[in-house]
């Protein structure tokens, strides 16, 4: 297995281009199953998770062509000739469950394996299933698979009440409702920018959707959807990750394509910690105001709150802040697996349940560390940029799921980082 070696070497300077959002692309791709006509996505990120979704859609009969060096995905689902999403593909990525709603809505039946994904908590799919049931789906769980069908061949509009916000369940329900008979109201829906991006794309395909970006989304079902071309929204998690690079080791970096409105709670916390963020014509320019970062308290929340997907990276920054920071993780119950690895680099962190207390130390020291999930692995790279000596991050296949060209992008701003191929 490949590893990444980072050597801390001081301030960074230059520009980093931010890719299209992995999480938006992973829900836009299954939307192709809703229409017989082609759906083309531009600004797609080049990631292994996107290839997994390509394989999954291909296994169902969709054609996915990768153009312009992977930045354009031309998809066509003229025929869905297999209605079973097999465990062998689904287990690699939790977002695979997002084929269930569209396939059921268009075809009236679907069989999808229960998913796997990052090991950051139990992560059931009950909310996805309950939402589809509220639209008249009949479901049976058998041998690790969800068997879904609609008695009349078509879902019917209904009211879906989510007890708490779920990004994936909102996306699945939203896609399914576009082809349901009648009107569907999603109450307690998630409000993430990736959901707004999905709704924009679905509207281009002819869907009738109002209220995306709020807690109540209303969808009036239509008989069929047409094709469309849609650019994937900027990856706010990649953006936030690279904003932390100059915050953690000094210098000034411009994040091309960056927008503050995608990350307002995160930007507020960085400001409180002593990081200056300016909107430029091309994106966001980021630098520290003083030599030291101040400790801040962080609580992860659904959008527009502080994203759980930036908690590990923020912890890396706070390891060398002045004072004591408290990080509370409220979305996933097991998302501090980066803490023991950061401690191997000299950080002082005390984890109790969903709370991590970080006492800033003067410097981190390079060490061999192991990535345990996607965001954890990039937090170790950030820590390595600030550490004295060499940090070797192993199991970087996690990184390949969500960060394109991480070595090239960080090298471009002066970091000493290299990928070492497995022997
Ligand atoms: C998505 C993102 C992921 C991010 C997460 C929260 C994608 C591909 N992934 O994941 O990067 O960390 O949002 O912002 O977009 N839950 C249930 N039952 C369900 C569904 C979820 O109990 O049926 C729970 C989860 O275990 C978790 C919480 O709800 O505790 C939020 O999860 P959810 O918003 O659904 O996350 P994902 O869509 O899986």
| Number of helical stretches of at least 4 residues | 14
Task: Please give the largest β-sheet.
Answer: 4 strands, mixed
Model regions low in confidence, pLDDT < 50 over at least 5 residues: none
- The end-to-end distance, rounded to whole angstroms, is 8 Å
CATH topology of the largest domain: UDP-n-acetylglucosamine1-carboxyvinyl-transferase, Chain
Structural class: alpha/beta
Q: Give the tally of β-strands.
A: 24
In terms of quaternary structure, what is this?
single chain
How are the strands of the biggest sheet laid out side by side? 22-23-1-24
- Indicate the percent of residues in helices: 25-40%
Mean pLDDT: 95
Q: What compounds are bound to the protein? A: uridine-diphosphate-N-acetylglucosamine
Regarding CATH, which class of the largest domain?
Alpha Beta
Overall, the morphology is elongated
By CATH, the superfamily of the largest domain comes out as Enolpyruvate transferase domain
Please tell me the CATH architecture of the largest domain by its name: Alpha-beta prism
In percent terms, what proportion of residues is strand? 25-35%
Radius of gyration: 21 Å
Number of domains: 2
